[in-house]
């Protein structure tokens, strides 16, 4: 590890194979927390490359606990987080809309890191617990076409790395790899980063990791979601081609709104917002969700264009299918908890 740290401190990029070796050392049982921290700080100061991110993500997936699920065109719509917008849980809400529209969604996530309520904090608020086993997650995905993949359960070897990240207290390469380490084999993905300068590189990481089709967004106002507040920058990765494009709310028939219109709060407050949106309450929150779900449908290939995807997403909510999906997952969660009590 020290030799790789010295290379990085000299502002030299690691080749894919070198980063793979370094990553395996990060996950080793005898890894030293301070050495991990020094390496991560040096990487952040140098600036991570697409190859370094892809190598770390591939190693992290190999160390994850796999899920026993049938082959399908699964989608993850998890973003990197850390955009500081204090919005409600847009991608979690969109996951119910996507599943209501028939997309098979395996959403990777964690508890709060930089927001008031992370995806699994708000799931608790909705009545969906996060102490599922990998078998429970597999059953949920097969039964409901939607599963929330709780990162600490599927990535049990992160303890020392977590200690190092807490010591550092600033973003590291692990902030970038979160959406890339889902143990479910993904053919499609819609993800966001709040670093427009790294947009093309992030899309190339998804290509290296074997996605068939994916979209990366860096949203207006620094969001890691598509925003109503201005011009959003995207890269579509389709069968190896990287295609940049931009989009505003007005381009797809929606209304401009400031970031303040989609602010969230505590897990319980955000759970209330999610229920309101999924019951069809119109406004900037509704529009933000159908915009992001529409892009997810386009990324998955269920819509031929983003505007068409927004129409399908809107129907998923107004038909009641998205809210029914929420209720079904809440019921599934209660059943699993009851089974655990009986055992």
Report on this structure.
This protein is α/β, with parallel strands linked by helices. It folds into 2 domains: 2-62, Transferase, Pyrimidine Nucleoside Phosphorylase, Chain C (Transferase, Pyrimidine Nucleoside Phosphorylase, Chain A, domain 3); 75-327, Pyrimidine Nucleoside Phosphorylase, Chain A, domain 2. Helix content is 49%, strand content 11%. The protein has 15 helices and 7 strands. It has helices spanning 2-9, 16-26, 33-46, 50-62, 90-100, 119-126, 134-144, 151-154, 159-168, 173-177, 199-208, 267-278, 284-300, 306-318, 321-342, and strands at residues 75-76, 105-109, 146-150, 188-192, 213-218, 232-238, 241-247. The strands form 2 sheets. A 5-stranded mixed β-sheet has the order 1-4-5-6-7. Strands 2-3 form a two-stranded parallel sheet. Helix 1 packs parallel to helix 3, helix 5 (90-100) packs across helix 13 and helix 5 (90-100) crosses helix 15. The longest helix is centred in the C-terminal third of the chain and has 22 residues, at 321-342. The radius of gyration is 19 Å and the shape is globular. The relative contact order is 0.15.
Give a short summary of the structure.
The protein contains 15 helices and seven strands. With 343 residues, the chain is α/β, with parallel strands linked by helices.
Named at the architecture level, the CATH assignment of the largest domain is 3-Layer(aba) Sandwich
Q: Decide which structural class fits the backbone.
A: alpha/beta
Domains, number:
2
The value of Rg in angstroms is 19 Å
- Strand proportion: 5-15%
How many extended strands? Answer: 7
Overall form: globular
Strand arrangement within the widest β-sheet reads 1-4-5-6-7
The portion of residues assigned to helices is 40-55%
CATH domain topology of the largest domain: Pyrimidine Nucleoside Phosphorylase, Chain A, domain 2
SSE succession? HHHHEHEHHEHHHEHEEEHHHH
Tally of contiguous helical segments:
15
The low-confidence parts are: 112-116
The CATH superfamily of the largest domain is Nucleoside phosphorylase/phosphoribosyltransferase catalytic domain
In the CATH hierarchy, what is the class of the largest domain?
Alpha Beta
Domain Glycosyl transferase family 3 N-terminal: 6-64
InterPro entries: Anthranilate_Pribosyl_Tfrase (IPR005940), Glycosyl_Trfase_fam3 (IPR000312), Glycosyl_Trfase_fam3_N_dom (IPR017459), Glycosyl_Trfase_fam3_N_dom_sf (IPR036320), Nuc_phospho_transferase (IPR035902)
Binding site for 5-phospho-alpha-D-ribose 1-diphosphate: 79, 82-83, 87, 89-92, 107-115, 119
Cofactor: Mg(2+)
């Amino acid at each position: 590890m020290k030799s790789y740290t010295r290379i990085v401190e000299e502002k030299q990029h690691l080749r894919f194979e070198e980063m793979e070796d370094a990553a395996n050392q990060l996950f080793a049982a005898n890894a030293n927390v301070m050495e991990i921290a020094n390496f991560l700080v040096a990487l952040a100061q140098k600036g991570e490359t697409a190859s370094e991110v892809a190598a770390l993500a591939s190693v992290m997936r190999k160390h994850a606990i796999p899920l026993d699920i049938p082959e399908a065109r699964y989608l993850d719509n998890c973003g990197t987080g850390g955009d500081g917008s204090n919005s409600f849980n847009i991608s979690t809400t969109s996951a119910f809309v996507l599943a209501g529209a028939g997309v098979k969604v395996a959403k990777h996530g964690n508890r709060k890191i930089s927001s008031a309520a992370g995806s699994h904090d708000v799931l608790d608020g909705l009545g969906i617990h996060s102490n599922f086993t990998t078998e429970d997650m597999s059953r949920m995905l097969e039964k409901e076409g939607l599963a929330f993949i709780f990162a600490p359960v599927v990535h049990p070897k992160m303890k020392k790395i977590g200690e190092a990240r807490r010591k550092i207290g600033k973003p590291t390469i692990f902030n970038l790899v979160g959406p890339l380490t889902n143990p479910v084999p993904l053919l499609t993905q819609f993800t966001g980063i709040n670093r427009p300068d790294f947009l093309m590189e992030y899309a190339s990481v998804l290509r290296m990791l074997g996605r068939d089709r994916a979209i990366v967004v860096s949203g207006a106002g620094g969001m890691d979601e598509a925003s109503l507040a201005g011009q959003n920058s995207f890269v579509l990765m389709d069968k190896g081609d990287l295609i940049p494009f931009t989009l505003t709310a007005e381009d797809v028939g929606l209304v401009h709104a400031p970031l303040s219109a989609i602010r969230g709060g505590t897990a319980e407050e955000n759970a209330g917002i999610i229920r309101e949106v999924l019951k069809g309450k119109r406004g900037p929150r509704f529009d933000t969700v159908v915009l992001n779900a529409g892009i997810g449908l386009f990324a998955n290939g269920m819509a031929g264009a983003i505007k068409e995807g927004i129409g399908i997403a809107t129907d998923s909510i107004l038909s009641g299918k998205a809210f029914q999906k929420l209720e079904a997952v809440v019921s599934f969660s209660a059943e699993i908890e009851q089974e655990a009590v009986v055992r």
